[in-house]
Amino acid sequence: MLRDPRRGCDHLEVLLSLLYRLVRSLLGLLAVLVRSDLSKDVELLVLRHENQVLRRQIGGRPRLDHADRLWLAALSRLVHRQQWAGVFRVTPATILRWHRKLVARKWTYTDRRRPGRPGTRRQVKTLIVRMARENPAWGHRRIQGELARLGYVIAASTVWEILHVAGIKPAPRRAGPTWRQFLAAQAQAIIACDFLVVETVLLKRLYVLVFIEHGTRRLHLAGVTAHPTGAWAVQQARNLTMDLCDRIGTLRLIIHDRDPLFTAAFAEVFRAEGMRIIRTMPRTPRMNAVCERVIGTLRRELLDRILILGERHLTRVLREYLIHYNGHRPHQARQQRPPDTEAQHTRGPAELTDLRSIQREAVVTGMISEYHHAA
Q1: What is the CATH superfamily name and number for domain 186-343?
Q2: Cα 219 → chain centroid
Q3: DSSP state of 119
Q4: Distance between CA atoms of 4 and 6, rounded to whole angstroms?
Q5: How many CA atoms lie within 13 A of 89 on its CB side?
Q6: Who's near 14: CB < 8 A, 6+ residues apart?
Q7: Would you say the C-alpha torsion 26, 28, 32, 35 has a positive or negative sign?
Q8: To the nearest whole percent, how much of the chain has pLDDT over 70?
Q9: Domain segments of the chain: what residues?
Q10: Which has the higher per-residue pLDDT, 101 or 290?
Q11: What span, in angstroms and rounded, lies between the C-alpha atoms of 159 and 179?
């Protein structure tokens, strides 16, 4: 087996550097020996004081390299062992440990070692983690089999180790889908609702009942009131089922929190349409994440930027925003299409030759901008 010539050059440079520093230190020691005792005592006091100042400044032990350790180990042979603690800032155990390392280094044939088994490529590790997260029921052997089908031969123990390092638990402990996976799988059959609370300019509290369809992200503003009751919520539910018309038949689940306004009569309106009721757990907003998100959008894009005068004003502003939200606002979950748009015409960047063809329209009392191509 051929050796790398550069490795030999590196070892030679390290050896020459170490030898050079030792020779310099040895010459310095000889110069000290020929000097008078008084001169050496004075220099020793100066060096000790300087050492104390430097230690206070660095706030800890100095960092020594191999040459420093070798030199201190050699000087320790000239000092009686009982005096080591006063002369050296290192303990006897430290000096002995340095010596053991030098001996171990002497008998370590690192240049004779052969390369071991090559490591797993980063792309394969990423693929393993991706498969585990996309398939909660898959264990490490199932992932190993899928990799083999793709042409990547890897040991099952290696797959297990990669998942362990990534913090992914064994399959039986992560077999259940996350709420995000569950909601995404059932999106076309889910509608969710929640109450939005708005404070007017005179600090009067208004309540808005909001519904949103998960599959299309279509938003429904059922009603606005200052005095919500269970009967009022039931009536808004009935109005919604009539507005949905045929689409109500595609919905199978409704999600809401444990607000006491969502009474048994409210649930019965949707059960009569063949829907199941899912009540979220306490303090678990992720179970109703889509509705929580749209309420946050209403606040950020509209309500935090305008003063509401009263119930009629809030109703008018929300209805204007509803037209913008369902008819124009793009949604990431729908590939940047609005809820009421099934197909969206796309244009290439080369088609935009005149910026004057893009016109802005201010909607919702001028708070929201919409852009259109000129007719």
Answers
A1: Ribonuclease H-like superfamily/Ribonuclease H (3.30.420.10)
A2: 30
A3: P
A4: 5
A5: 12
A6: none
A7: positive
A8: 66
A9: 62-108, 122-174, 186-343
A10: 290
A11: 26
